[in-house]
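input
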Amino acid sequence: MPHILIVDDDATMRDALAEVVVDLGHTACLAADGLSALALLDTEPVSAMFLDLRMPGIDGLEVLRRLRARPKAPAVTVLTAHATASNTIEAMRLGAFDHLTKPIGRADLAQVLQRMLSSVAEPGASFPAEEAEAIIGSSEAMRTVQKTIGVLADSDATVLITGETGTGKEVVARAIHEHGLRHDRPFVAVNCAAIPVDLLESELFGHARGAFTGATADRDGAFRQAAHGTLFLDEIGDMDMAMQAKILRALQERVVVPVGGKPVPVDVRVIAATHRDLQRSVREGSFREDLFYRLHVVPIHLPPLSARIADIVPLAEYFLTRVAAGKRLSADAAALLIRFAWPGNVRELKNAMERAAVMVRGEYIHATDLAFLQDARSPQDSALEFDWPDEDLPSALARLEEMLIRRALRDSGNNRTDAARRLNVNRQLLYAKLKRYGIDVADSGRDTEAG
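output
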């Protein structure tokens, strides 16, 4: 019978998780802190482990780091009520099997436990303790991206990042570099669409002195400038066929030929990105099939911002903080941002926040300050339409909060556990909010949350 170790300083959470584990036919071992868990691993044959992130003493990531230094370690799923890009990436980088946000449903718990027991956990490696968080977002799509970054960061696998213009492809590429083993080496970005065709070869591969008119000195080129680091080829889908053949050779042989020079070996990780559908381009004959498969080793797709509703306000606040510390969004401004279509994606949101921060003198940015967005406004859901009266900020925030709760309940079929997950809050807080706003909910389905 598999032994499942549950590590959490919250006794209620420990007991709830243990109950589910036992119901599933396993033996539950409990630890209230990281040091107790490590000691218990010396005496119990643990097959899988649920590990809380925030605990007194040594936190979950430090436990994971020490655990992965052992010769043999169980599969570990990290649990947290406060998921960020940084702790998600770090947990996955250190070898975590998965990274889940509380509250955790019984079905989700059973599924991840089954997957852990059928896997073989491998030791991880060290990871920088402090990293600047560049990826903002707690939506399911972005958490999937964060987990993928953590898993592939230390490898040299070629990555192809796809997504609409402005979704943050270079941000993801830099995160892969910064969280990987090459983080202390160069990161060189080249926009293949912005460089004239006749200059791109020299830009990428370099040239020898005298190779052409104006070549008064040797030039390394981007491949050699990124030696032992990462080369980011942005908009590679816009590259012409002749250059595609040369890129393919460089990727296959790890050798570049400077214009007018001799072959030079290179050690560089390549990350490519494009807003185009490369598979369609292959079918149409405008992109080499062999190059596509050489690039498509690990694909990462970034969804449009309109599909990441939960990330819009956190991103806006992040951009405001970077431009003008102290600026805040009012409730009506946040509502406007949520219902706007964002055809320019994250880049458009960033530019809008920078503009508002410069033009608004007061502390709060209101919907009227974002009137420049209205011309392109595209409502996504009639339920998000507001008729904001002249009221103070606490009242407006309460109205927005109640609306979001009612929408989450509607979308979840009045299942409070699912609604809490959609809102990214714990179930107990949701219950308190339901009572505060007088929302009487008869669950259409039985609450199945474990904790």
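quick obs: The domain at 3-144 is CATH 3.40.50.2300 (Rossmann fold).
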